[in-house]
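queue> holo job accepted (PMT)
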Amino acid sequence: MSEISYMSDGPLDRVRVLLGVSGGIAAYKAAELVRRLRDAGAEVRVVMTANATHFVGVATFQALSGNPVRTSLWDESAEAAMSHIELARWADEVLIAPASADLLARIAHGSADDLLSTLVLATTAPLSVAPAMNQQMWANAATQANIAILRQRGVRVFGPAVGSQACGETGEGRLPEAHELVAALVAARGSRLLDGVRVLVSAGPTFEDIDPVRFIGNRSSGKMGFAVAAAAARAGAVVRLIAGPVALPTPAGVERVDVRSARQMRDAVIAAASAHDIFISAAAVGDYRPQMISASKLKKSGQPLALELVQNPDIIAEVATLPKRPFLVGFAAETDDLERYAQEKLERKGLDMIAANQVGESLGFECGENALLLLWPGGREQLALADKGALAQSLIERVAARRTAKLEHAGNP
Ligand code: PMT
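queue> job finished
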């Protein structure tokens, strides 16, 4: 037994934190972090990489956490007591501090070549990383690309802090102090605004086939909708994501259904809508599809080719007519007259809220940042240009507040 007792009612009361410690001089600071996490009420289990054991002894973490420390996938007695899969399931939170450049690279690319990287792949718990390294290593384009991948996937990144480094240089790359990391984890968990609420999100484009090799599509990358799904999951929601054809990893804790065409998206959304409390329609659904899909590749004829297009179902407008309809949040993508067209869509489609974004060259579509004008019956709010992850978080906070207001108004809080 450890001599440190849990603090009940702390901000991390009974939260099971799997603390990953990777190799770097800042590993010694993780010892203080274990104490601080436990003071905040968390139960802590520590997993060290082989490199981390060169900086701090296993016994230190064992004593401070009050639990056995794992360092390898191949420790038979430890696996028998609690297998790595059980450990992955046990965690409510995975926090890696310090996260070295090498570890960030491995988890960004899905490696499972040691216990810690395997646990990261095997867990559905939210993942937070606190990078710590030499400032040049942090600034390196490879490290920044890996961090961008992780952020896009919904991984929280705490720090790094700026200051003097063990290597004698000064710059960005220090591990934040233990109390700052605990505060960041508490803040990131938020107030679980959507705890247990069922949220359906659509994202990405739809592809409307012309023949076996060609289709009509659009420039949506899915980033905005995936960020919304990740933010809803972080807020405690049970999230189902209906994804058009995109090349994005599934956010942690989100159930994903892949579709291709607007009609497939319609079927997946309608089948699920009534079982959800909120539907956020961030997908750029193709309004038209070719009337006929040619069974074989169309050949050049030397003549103009006319494609007859028919209108696709308006998915969100159809959800609005369901007897048991969720709280409905649409998006509006406009090149001109943003507010007027968005207001018109809010009313015509019978929505509870619409998030309007200006799209065009390097705006809205594909890029990592966006700005949203939120409109709802009787109100508006501008969310300034921000990273899509941060913006999605703000959107989810507004959606939770508007839905609560609507339920209270209906006498059903
Ligand atoms: O994916 P990214 O690259 O990150 O880009 C994000 C985005 C710009 C695609 C996203 O922020 C966005 O604006 N998504 C909605 C795009 C769109 O189709 O807007 P719209 O104004 O055409 O449609 C209005 C609303 O009706 C949307 O919620 C849309 O999902 C829905 N709709 C549209 C047509 C249709 N047939 N069925 C629908 O449900």
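queue> Residues 364 and 370 are 5 Å apart (CA to CA).
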